[in-house]
From TrEMBL:
Residues 32-54 form the Glucagon / GIP / secretin / VIP family domain. GO terms for molecular function: growth hormone-releasing hormone activity; growth hormone-releasing hormone receptor binding; neuropeptide hormone activity; peptide hormone receptor binding. This is Somatoliberin. It comes from Sapajus apella (Brown-capped capuchin). PANTHER family: GLUCAGON-FAMILY NEUROPEPTIDE (PTHR11213), SOMATOLIBERIN (PTHR11213:SF6). One of its GO terms (biological process) is adenylate cyclase-activating G protein-coupled receptor signaling pathway. It comes from the Eukaryota. Belongs to the glucagon family. It holds the Pfam family Hormone_2. InterPro entries: Glucagon_GIP_secretin_VIP (IPR000532), VIP/GHRH-like (IPR046963). PROSITE patterns: GLUCAGON.
Length: 107
């Protein structure tokens, strides 16, 4: 008989229910309640992880929105300052033209 057949027979006989009695009911109930607790605990941890991930994603999106708003505000301020400079230059050129016209009229 080959060695692997002998080992297989020994393992089969040793794992049968005739060799080892079932654990007592109290031990089986404790294991069962431990398994239920562990399973429930893992579910809660999974939900907490998913909630934290969702909050992180939402915070990132909110941060990106704030950055976009900030960029728009900066752009608006830049446009306003360019507009104010152009308006100032236009007013100065009008004032210079009026002074020149007034000087010519007095001569």
């Amino acid at each position: 008989m080959p060695l692997w057949v002998f080992v297989f027979v020994i393992l089969t006989l040793s794992s049968s229910s005739h060799c080892f009695p079932h654990p007592p009911l109290a031990l089986r109930m404790r294991r069962y309640t431990d398994a239920i607790f562990t399973n429930s605990y893992r579910k809660v941890l999974g939900q907490m992880s998913a909630r934290k991930l969702l909050q992180d994603i939402m915070n990132r999106q909110q941060g990106e929105r704030n950055q976009e708003r900030g960029a728009r505000a900066r752009l608006g301020r830049q446009v306003d300052s360019v507009w104010a400079e152009q308006k100032q230059m236009a007013l100065e050129s009008i004032l210079v033209a009026l002074r020149q016209k007034h000087s010519r009229n007095q001569e």
